[in-house]
Amino acid sequence: MNTDSMTEIWVYLSAQPLLWLTLTLAAYLLAIALHRKAGGHPAVNPVLVSVTILVALLSLTGTPYQRYFDGAQFVHFLLGPTTVALAIPLHSQLKRLVAMGGPLMVALVVGSLTAGLSAYAIGALLGASAPTVASLAPKSVTTPIAMGVAERLGGLASLTAVFVILTGIFGAIFAAGLLRRLGVKDDASVGFAMGLASHGIGTARAFQISEQTGAFAALAMGLNGLFTALTLPWLLPLLAPLVRP
């Protein structure tokens, strides 16, 4: 088969909506296999590996992102139901949740405000533009909520998605080890911190540690999304004088 024939076949396949959905699932399955081969090492994060594979494919084939998204958007659609389903393992931790209710609420408020306002302030002090800092502020919130918050603040949803993914991958790789070194060994506390700081990707990593860790990470992810969506839109204008247009 010559090069022209292969090019024609690729052009035909790339126009089919199921191609990129199939490649996305294949990339993730390959990433999971590599993760297991590496003994579950956090640096071989399945999301990081699969994103790297897909970015390489899009770059090598010259495929526009919109064409990719049109084919793989079913995965995006499942983000909502998947987030809701994370409440199921949390139900088994109900007694522990009630007992820790007060400290968890304090951690939520402090952690959420620190994540959003510090990112906004640092970006502003480094000279980032208003749309950039608005895109950066909700970086620790799960993707669907973060994109909505960013658009409301005048940011760029696509840029926010990049910040969210990078934050989640960083948290999944380093958060658990860092917390252990700081002396935080309780599974519920570790999970809540990971879900609060690194949303869905951190939550997936938390479930690899234990069911309790994952359940509290899922709780933190949901509460942080709600708290951020309610507070950032009226808090950030107070910092607006720091930002260049």
Topology pattern, helix = H, strand = E: HHHHHHHHHHHHH
By secondary-structure content and strand pairing, the structural class works out as mainly alpha
The total domain count is: 2
Q: How would you state the average pLDDT, rounded? A: 82
- Taking the alpha carbons of the first and last residues, their distance comes to 55 Å
3D shape = globular
Poorly predicted tracts of residues: none
User: Compute the gyration radius: what is it?
Assistant: 20 Å
| Overall strand count | 0
- DSSP strand (E) fraction? under 5%
| Main sheet: strands, sense, barrel | none
- The number of distinct helices, counting runs of at least 4 residues, comes to 13
Structure description:
The protein has 13 helices and no strands. It is mostly helical and 245 residues long. The chain has two domains: 3-77, no CATH class; 84-239, no CATH class. Helix 10 (143-153) packs across helix 11 (157-181). The protein is globular. The N and C termini lie far apart (55 Å).
